[in-house]
Design brief:
Length: 409
């Protein structure tokens, strides 16, 4: 008689990672429009970009009446002290309570159980899970004892997860998970995974690279089965990450290495239709993807700087349109460069709300000047006549006007 496999219970408001192909947490490329587009193309779950706990603590939660998003905002630290000066608040995190409902995992950057709990409580009512980033190798994360630095202190990382499980997961009935990297040896990785799985987490994602490895280096999968076996024995879902290019490959790798799920990162950053199977048509042309992205970005009034960055990831770099978009300073200019005429009216409205209309005014002036030069080339004499008039004008003394006296030095 076969015994039923052990499983950590999935909380009422949480989500089981098993059988899922998901969007990886990515700074800049994981903002709201990118997540919504990935969901549209078939991602089962989406991770938001790593958000540092201390940046969330002290934020205000606001409902945007136009986009219906929930925005966590705060006053910039370098804001003017004068209360008479209007200060635009920074948006630290945004989510869509209906379009992402039950499918959004909030990834937190932290090095402290108390601050992790305090920050996670703010967003817990609106997400399906909280994931601790214990894999980011970048100095801004590791220098603060966060990210991959936590891999060197397994006991401390376990204490963070235990606190989140007890004080956030159990209270809000959502899952707590962690994302790690491989350690120097399989034995060290095994010890780490066993310790983390004993904290009550529902999921563990392993990025199949060590901390020093860069994305261009091939993912290491030799330890994957061992990690999956440990997670399965503890009833914890195991997700693999690293060089997963599309849904079809994800499903094949899940079966080959007996893991529960797979996470797509850079391939989805370049084309989020990578979540479509071959039977569904596979990858879509870049232009169709860009247009869908632009529609979503406009719908949620996405920050222009982030939209411009994401467009740069989605478009082939050799295109003339790519160069025009790279030089754009507003949604209106970008839609014009891409010839998305049906979006032009909405683009102007969004530019107005985001304070980008001034760029349009400057562009209009430059355009007018350009037309004036064209008119001159075609035979217009406005500026020539002005020049001749100034050259033949009589001196001041001849017109009965005294010249100004020179100032003493």
């Amino acid at each position: 008689m076969n015994s039923t496999p052990k499983r950590v219970p999935i909380p009422k408001n949480g989500v089981d990672y098993r059988g899922k192909v998901v969007l990886a947490p990515m700074v800049r490329s994981g903002e709201l429009p990118s997540r919504l587009l990935a969901l549209k193309y078939g991602a089962d779950l989406v991770w938001g970009p790593e958000t540092i706990d201390k940046s969330m603590i002290g934020t205000k939660k606001r409902i945007d009446p136009i986009s219906s998003t929930i925005d966590y905002t705060r006053t910039p630290s370098n804001a003017p002290k004068n209360p008479a000066v209007a200060v635009k608040e920074s948006k630290i995190y945004r989510l869509h309570p209906t379009r992402e409902y039950g499918r959004l995992v909030f990834q937190i950057g932290t090095s402290s159980p108390p601050t992790a709990v305090e920050a996670a409580r703010l967003v817990a009512p609106h997400v399906a899970g909280i994931d601790v980033n214990a894999g980011c190798p970048k100095p801004f994360s590791t220098s603060g004892g966060m990210g991959a630095a936590l891999l060197q202190t397994p006991g401390h990382l376990a204490s963070i997860l235990s606190a989140l499980v007890t004080e956030v997961g159990n209270v809000y009935e959502i899952g707590i998970s962690v994302k790690i990297r491989l350690l120097e040896t399989a034995d060290k990785t095994e010890m780490l995974v066993r310790k983390l799985c004993s904290t009550g987490i529902t999921g563990l994602t392993v990025h199949c690279r060590t901390t020093p490895m860069r994305p261009r280096e091939r993912a290491i999968r030799e330890q994957l089965r061992m990690i999956a076996d440990i997670c399965r024995g503890e009833g914890v879902a195991c997700i693999m990450n690293g060089d997963v290019k599309n849904r079809d490959e994800a499903l094949r790798l899940m079966q080959e290495f007996e893991v529960d799920g797979a996470m797509i990162a850079t391939a989805a950053e370049a084309n989020p239709s990578s979540f479509r199977t071959k039977e569904e048509g596979g990858l879509l042309p870049w232009r169709e993807v860009v247009e869908e992205y632009m529609k979503i970005a406009l719908d949620v009034d996405n920050k222009w700087g982030n939209t411009k960055f994401t467009l740069g990831q989605l478009m082939p770099g050799k295109l003339e349109a790519y160069k025009k978009v790279a030089g754009s300073r507003s949604y209106t200019e970008a839609c014009g460069a891409l010839e998305f005429d049906e979006l032009s009216d909405q683009a102007r409205e969004v530019d107005e709300r985001l304070g980008l209309s001034r760029h349009l005014d400057v562009a209009a002036v430059k355009n007018a000047k350009g037309k004036n030069k064209s008119a001159q080339a075609a035979g217009g004499h406005t500026d020539i006549e002005r020049s001749l008039s100034s050259e033949t004008r009589l001196p001041l003394s001849a017109r009965g006007i005294s010249a100004p006296t020179a100032m003493a030095v």
